[in-house]
Amino acid sequence: QVQLVESGGGSVQAGESLRLSCSASGWGSTHLCMGWFRRTPGKEYEGVAGINSAGTIEYADSVKARFTISRDNANNTLYLQMNSLMPEDTAMYYCAARGRCWYSGSTLTSSAIYDDWGQGTQVTVSS
User: Fold this and answer.
1) Chain Cα centroid distance, residue 14
2) What are the beta bridge partners of residue 46?
3) What is the C-alpha to C-alpha distance for residues 21 and 8, in angstroms, rounded to an integer?
């Protein structure tokens, strides 16, 4: 199992930026896929962005021009840089991981492939 801890959420105004971080530990494979998901009360998880061990990246269409996912393998940390935030980005954001992962493409933003999840960090964007 991979243990994940998110940080960096907060309350901002529309047009501002935030950077989320996810610290990972307990991994047992170099083939680690990681992703960011978000959810509002009463709704299902939405895949925001995903990245595999080779650095292949997938974004949801709604964030592709504004968000950037990256990973620091030396420090075992996943990031989500969020620019030009909009009120519709308001949600709880979760980090997810899967070991022995060879997926790519849109699968990286599918919640079904991920085994381990963090507890989330809240992002609130006001207009």
Assistant:
1) 20
2) 38
3) 6
